Amino acid sequence: MPTARSVVLFDLFGVIARHQLPGALGKMAARCHTPTDPFTTAYWDCRPPYDAGRQSASEYWTAVLRQLSLSADPDTIEELRLTDIDSWSRVDEQMVAYALSLRDVAEVALLSNIPSDHADAFLAAQPWLRRLDHVALSGKIRAAKPDPAAFQHCVDALRAAPGDFLFVDDRAENVRAARGMGMNGHVFTGRDELAAVIDTWLRRTVGHDQV
Predict the structure, then answer these.
(1) CA pair distance 185, 179, nearest whole angstrom
(2) Most distant CA pair in the chain, distance
(3) Strand residues in the chain grouped as ranges (E)
(4) DSSP codes joined into one string, 176-202
(5) pLDDT, tens digit, 9 for 90 and up, residues 168-193
(6) Which residues contact 83 (CB under 8 A, 6 or more apart)?
(7) Whether the Cβ atoms of residue 24 and residue 79 lie closer than 8 Å to each other
(8) Which of 38, 79, 176, 201 could serve as a FRET partner for 5 with CA atoms 20 to 30 Å apart?
(9) Residue 111 contacts by C-beta under 8 Å, 6 or more apart in sequence?
(10) What are phi and psi of 135, to 5 degrees?
């Protein structure tokens, strides 16, 4: 059966927005007077509950600093928090324009892993997000990819069927999770390739083959 709707569901970082600013982790590590490698390990080890809205920024940074056997004073935490937010603030303007252009032919939504305080800053700085049909940010919906609950949130919020979606992410494990929910999925490698995939998907007439 043909799907009734076409919803392109974008990841944010690595697709529409840039990955973390190079050197940012080293800058934060230097602020803590610790080598970059153990700081980076602690930064990512402690990240999942922060991304999923189960920890505040203060709780997250306290956990990071404790893993490094460092004191977690409020001034250090706030400086790390602000540096971290700034390091994830860049967008690919061409991809922003492309995503918005798709609203002429499809619904366009976004699902991103991003802590709640980062989400507040990103929403304030990027007014184009308000032009999308739905924006799901993990720290706000309290579910982070590849948790099926993150994808289910989008299905429920848009009152659509999983097969109505084409999910686009640069991480294969997240695309696999989306497909496991019944969505179509594409691993992002570049705008031109994505545009060809979306054009083909929008022309589908029967079924919803995964692309």
Answers:
(1) 6
(2) 60
(3) 7-10, 107-112, 134-137, 165-169, 184-187
(4) HHHHHTT-EEEE---HHHHHHHHHHHH
(5) 999 999 999 999 999 999 999 999 99
(6) 24, 27, 28, 31
(7) no
(8) 176
(9) 9, 10, 11, 12, 136, 138, 145, 150, 151, 153, 154, 167
(10) -125, 115
